[in-house]
Design goal:
two-stranded antiparallel ribbon
C-alpha cells in the first residue's frame, strides 16, 4: 500500500510547524517547504538569479565557507510591496521546491519499513495550486487573537501584509481534506493528528 502523501498548511501563527513536529513524533516522514527554500537560498543558481534581479541589497554578511547569506527580510519587503517581484520570486522558487517535494515522495515510498505518512508543510499550498500533488490535505486553524499571541513583535507587524496575500483561514479549511483547530495544548493537537493518520491508514 502506498504511503499516504499529505500537504499541511495554515495561516501564519496557526501552528503549522508545531503540527509538523507532532506528526513526526507520530511516525510520519516530514518536510518543510520553508526549510527547502532556506536551503535553495544557499545554492549558486538561486543566488545568481537574486543578484541579477535585485543586486546586493538582498544579501547580508557572508557566512564563513558557505557563500553569501540571503537577507530573507529584505526579500520579504520587496515581494510584499510588489506583485511583479512576488510573481518573479515564486516563479523561481516554486518549481524548485516542487522538485524537492517529488524527490521526498519517491524516497519515502522506498523506505522499509514505511512511515505512517509523508507530510509536507506548505504555507501557500492552495495559493500555489499544489494540493493536487497530495492524497490529502490538512489545514491548521486557530483563533485570530491566539495567533497574534504566538507571534513575535516583528511577525505581528507583518501579519496584516502577509494575510492580504493568502487565502483566509476559512477558505483554507474549506479546501482541505481535514481542518484541525489548534486552540489547546500540544498534546491535544497531537491527539487530533493521530486520529487523522489512523483515518488515512484505514
Amino acid at each position: 500500500m502506498p504511503v499516504p502523501f499529505v500537504g499541511l498548511t495554515g495561516s501564519i501563527g496557526a501552528g503549522k510547524s508545531t503540527a509538523l513536529a507532532a506528526l513526526g513524533r507520530l511516525g510520519a516522514a516530514t518536510l518543510s517547504a520553508d526549510a527547502v527554500v532556506d536551503e535553495l537560498y544557499w545554492t549558486e543558481a538561486v543566488q545568481t538569479a537574486l543578484r541579477l534581479r535585485w543586486g546586493e541589497r538582498v544579501f547580508s554578511d557572508p557566512r564563513t565557507g558557505a557563500g553569501q547569506q540571503v537577507d530573507k527580510q529584505a526579500v520579504a519587503r520587496l515581494v510584499f510591496n510588489s506583485a511583479d517581484e512576488r510573481t518573479w520570486l515564486q516563479g523561481l522558487l516554486w518549481p524548485l521546491t516542487a522538485q524537492r517535494t517529488r524527490e521526498f515522495h519517491q524516497a519515502i515510498d522506498a523506505r522499509t519499513p514505511p512511515p505512517r505518512a509523508g507530510v509536507v508543510e506548505v504555507p501557500l499550498l492552495f495559493e500555489a495550486g499544489g494540493e493536487g500533488r497530495f492524497d490529502a490535505t490538512i489545514t491548521i486553524v486557530a483563533d485570530n487573537a491566539l495567533r497574534a499571541q504566538r507571534l513575535a513583535v516583528r511577525e505581528q507587524a507583518e501579519l496584516a501584509a502577509r494575510e492580504r496575500l493568502q487565502l483566509s483561514q476559512s477558505e483554507k479549511a474549506a479546501r482541505a481534506t481535514f481542518a484541525v483547530v489548534n486552540d489547546g495544548s500540544v498534546e491535544e493537537l497531537e491527539r487530533k493528528l493521530a486520529e487523522i493518520l489512523d483515518t488515512l491508514a484505514a
